[in-house]
Amino acid sequence: MMLYGIAQPAHAALPSLSLWIICLIPRPARAYPLTPLSKGKRMTFEEFNLSPAILKAVIACGYTVPTPIQEQSIPLVMSGKDLIATAQTGTGKTAAFILPALQRLTAPSAVPGKGPRILVLTPTRELAGQVMDAARTYGRGTNLRCGSILGGMP
Prior knowledge:
By secondary structure, this protein is of the alpha/beta class. Helix content is 31%, strand content 8%.
């Protein structure tokens, strides 16, 4: 799945991190049209089958019902589908991809070693910081570690 990249420390002096915040443009994906949400019953975060630690962190943030972008995208991403989605600022896009990423990291690895690594690339330093803060907030009950690598001008 292209939303998830494999990251290994480039230098032995760098710490082994579970989540690296950087930013990558995914390959063109097959379109999975999102259907309009019904006016009836809304999903809850419990229905996403997140690990207890991640679910506890989400609830501790005061979230009970996912936003439309989360409700439509999290099941697709957790099923292994590529996704390109847009939504207005403040609609929960970061949680829509970080929650499935953290869930993937908490699952036991099928390959021996240190398990999966996630790479997130962002176009700005500010967004890298926001994504890292979200990953730390939602992953606080896990043993996952996050790091941010910034380049360019100071």
